[in-house]
Write a structure and sequence with these properties.
alpha/beta; Rossmann fold; Calcium-transporting ATPase, cytoplasmic domain N; 2 domains; 13 strands; binds adenosine-5'-diphosphate; binds magnesium ion; copper transport; translocase; Copper-transporting ATPase HMA5; repeat; nucleotide-binding
């Protein structure tokens, strides 16, 4: 491609909200044969909501959610925001409820939170958090979790003083058109993979819904980057699409890192291409643009 063609290509991209940081990024994109997608906020809308509360022990819901919200209000995680938002339902008489005071707050990356509220130790998070903190998970709880994950929802466990009290089912639906994008990519001979910090059950269900066969779940940020490097070592030209701080190492490692526009500054910084409109379809726009620039106009 001539420098003019590259300029035209990046210009057309920009006019459609696909910001390509330089000619090399545009060139590498037409060779991509494999795309690693982050789940939360990339394939899914990224605005999780609580759809169900299952209590394993009898407890007044209002009190239960006060303890949970008091712990989660200190966390920046999208799941924590969803929990606090939902907890307000039980305090509707107040415009902005003041949660009980939380002491010794701890945020455990990839697992959840811990705090002491009203002299009780509260743990909110995934199974790994409970296992590491010696909270027993009953067969009943396992069944509820399996059910939740089968519905492509994430189950968040709540333990009070080391006793499992409840499970919150959280739904974060697929973005509209996600399934179609994956199917079009397949027809373009581009393989899709999903990688997420969420659990295997939920990840598998979401992948099935969207039409992706290869799944990596319970991945830490460094695992996401490792997976990208592994695919490269097998001879693939790999793009990574993500939105979170967690995705930055993988965005950097990929041949083409694509940040979904509404993502974090860190992800946008790490990426070669920014999809300003947060549309998954723009992954195809970027590949099309690169193929047009580097195949036809020579
Ligand atoms: P991702 O953003 O890729 O889904 P994370 O590594 O941020 O993954 O989190 C992995 C899992 O850890 C979440 O799916 C959830 O089960 C649990 N988790 C993390 N932070 C919290 C939190 N603040 N509250 C409840 N659960 C959490
Ligand atoms: Mg994400």
């Amino acid at each position: 491609a001539t420098p003019t063609a590259v300029m035209v290509g990046t210009g057309v991209g920009a006019s459609q909200g696909v910001l390509i940081k330089g000619g090399q990024a545009l060139e590498r994109t037409h060779k991509v044969n494999c795309i690693v997608f982050d789940k939360t906020g990339t394939l899914t809308i990224g605005k999780p909501v609580i759809v169900n509360t299952r209590l394993l022990k009898s407890m007044v819901l209002r009190e239960f959610y006060e303890l949970v919200a008091a712990s989660e209000v200190n966390s920046e995680h999208p799941l924590a925001k969803a929990v606090v938002e939902y907890a307000k339902k039980f305090r509707q008489e107040e415009e902005s409820p003041v949660w009980p005071e939380a002491q010794d707050f701890e945020s455990i990356t990839g697992q959840g939170v811990r705090a002491v509220v009203r002299n009780k130790e509260v743990l909110v998070g995934n199974k790994r958090l409970m296992l590491e903190r010696n909270v027993a998970i009953s067969i009943d709880a396992e069944e509820i979790l399996a059910e939740t994950e089968g519905l492509a929802q994430t189950g968040i466990l709540v333990a009070i003083d080391k006793e499992l009290i409840g499970i919150l089912a959280i739904s974060d639906p697929l973005k509209p058109g996600a399934r179609e994008v994956i199917s079009i990519l397949k027809s373009m001979k581009v393989k899709s993979i999903v990688v997420t910090g969420d659990n295997w059950g939920t990840a598998n269900s979401i992948a099935k819904e969207v039409g992706i066969d290869t799944v990596i779940a319970e991945a830490k940020p460094e695992h996401k980057a490792e997976k990208v490097k592994e695919l490269q070592a097998e001879g693939n030209i790999v793009a990574m699409v993500g939105d979170g701080i967690n995705d930055s190492p993988a965005l950097v490692a990929a041949d083409v890192g694509m940040a979904i526009g509404a993502g974090t500054d860190i992800a946008i910084e790490a990426a070669d291409i920014v999809l300003m409109k947060s549309n998954l379809e723009d992954v195809i726009t970027a590949i099309d643009l690169s193929r047009t620039t580097f195949f036809r106009i020579r």
